[in-house]
């Protein structure tokens, strides 16, 4: 299964944000074990760098955290065409529309996000980490 992960899911893991930490971590564990093909967009990586640098205030920790992510997740590039086509999607938030269009281009089965309402008009179905785990991996050992 091919999924594109929204930045908020990664932030749940890196920030150990409750009550979301467990299911978001499970998503990354599935990717690490090659049970799913998971990716984030290149701009999510730069957003994470910016936020982690403010939070951790330690460049080495930030670099190590992002390198760990890069080891288990694919990085989806963002093209000029993606940027233009995102404007055509009936979505209020351009950043979400861009992520949705990239998900469509890479043929993602789902966008894993905690903000389902932001992706209601997405060409790729959104799903929360909790719903994804319970729907596809409830019976299996992650």
TrEMBL record:
It holds the Pfam family PIN_3. It comes from the Bacteria. CDD domains: PIN_VapC-like. Residues 3-117 form the PIN domain. This is Nucleic acid-binding protein.
């Amino acid at each position: 299964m091919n999924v594109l992960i929204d930045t908020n899911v990664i932030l749940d893991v890196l920030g150990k944000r409750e009550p979301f930490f467990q299911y978001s971590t499970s998503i990354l564990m599935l990717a690490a074990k090659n049970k799913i093909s998971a990716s984030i967009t290149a701009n999510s990586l730069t957003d994470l760098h910016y936020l982690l640098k403010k939070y951790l205030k330690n460049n080495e920790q930030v670099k190590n955290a992002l390198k760990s992510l890069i080891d288990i997740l694919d990085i989806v590039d963002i093209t000029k065409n993606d940027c233009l086509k995102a404007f055509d999607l009936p979505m209020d938030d351009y950043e979400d529309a861009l992520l949705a269009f990239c998900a469509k281009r890479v043929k993602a089965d789902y966008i894993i996000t905690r903000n389902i309402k932001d992706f209601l008009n997405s060409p790729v179905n959104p799903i929360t980490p909790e719903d994804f785990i319970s729907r596809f991996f409830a019976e299996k050992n992650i």
